[in-house]
Amino acid sequence: xxxxxxxxxxxxxxxxxxxxxxRPRYRLLxxxxxxxxxxxxxxxxxxxxxxxxxxxxSLPQDKDIPAELLDxxxxxxxxxRPFSFSAVRHKGNKFEIDISYHVVGPSTVRxxxxxxxxxxxxxxxxxNGFRIDQxxxxxxxxxxxxxxxxxxHLAAYLKSQYPQMRVTAFIGARSINEIPFDIGTDSxxxxxxxxxxxxxxxxxxxxxxxxxxxKGFVTQLVEKLLVPGPFQTDKAILYACGPEPMxxxxxxxxxxxxxxxxxxMERMMACGxxxxxxxxxxxxxxxxEDGWSYRLCCKDGPVLDGKDVIFD
Length: 312
Description:
This protein is of the alpha/beta class and 312 residues long. It has helices at 2-8, 35-40, 106-111, 148-161, 194-197, 218-226, 244-257, and strands spanning 11-23, 26-33, 49-52, 81-84, 87-91, 94-102, 119-126, 138-144, 166-173, 184-185, 191-192, 203-207, 214-215, 236-241, 261-264, 280-284, 292-296, 303-305. It starts with a helix and ends in a 7-residue tail after the last strand.
């Protein structure tokens, strides 16, 4: 009963204020929270998430559904879906949040039908966000694909709340068509991401196919720049979110250069509060008989210490 009460106290309504296409399959949803939601988000941290009820939403017409999703999109949606947010800001006496999403299944297909004025039921903020260590002012942010939203939120948060920190971001994607941000140019005609440049965070880009920025994996660029030095490892920290193979590489790199790292993990989190046990992550546990145990991504995470996560 305690879990149910905690969940109910975080249920609120949000109204769509803006909804636009970033890339063919990537969209940005701006939601205005009601008074209850705004109060809940007053102390939100980057890396937390919300659960959205997409079940009541209508399906778009077949012609507006990607061909490969036509069958799966028509499945009934019984559970909420987790989404991180890329920005949180005051709007008068309320809060607005930005949710970037990739159209990949039944819930996200339904989200595409939302227009300004529509309402959504949300639960949040949930989970544990990134922990800020002021003793390590050299902050390296690493984002891969749809792991970018919490890193974007973290970049803005650090610049506004900890201006003394030196923040640099590295963003990677498979191709230019899979970058979940607006793309702009600087005064010299160079490619930038306004999501980071607007808050004063220098950033570098990679794509697997070389269609934008440096060709290769984002972790390759990070290692190339950090490992040779000079790099003040005693003052640095890495924060990352992205595909699990990328996070495993970041964890190994952090251990190699002896720098702590925090990883925002991803799992299917059906309930968001630890009841369904569906989002288990294998972690090191010196107190356990076998030296490891499971933690729940939704409740113990989604942000975990990189040295604790066991990547099989």
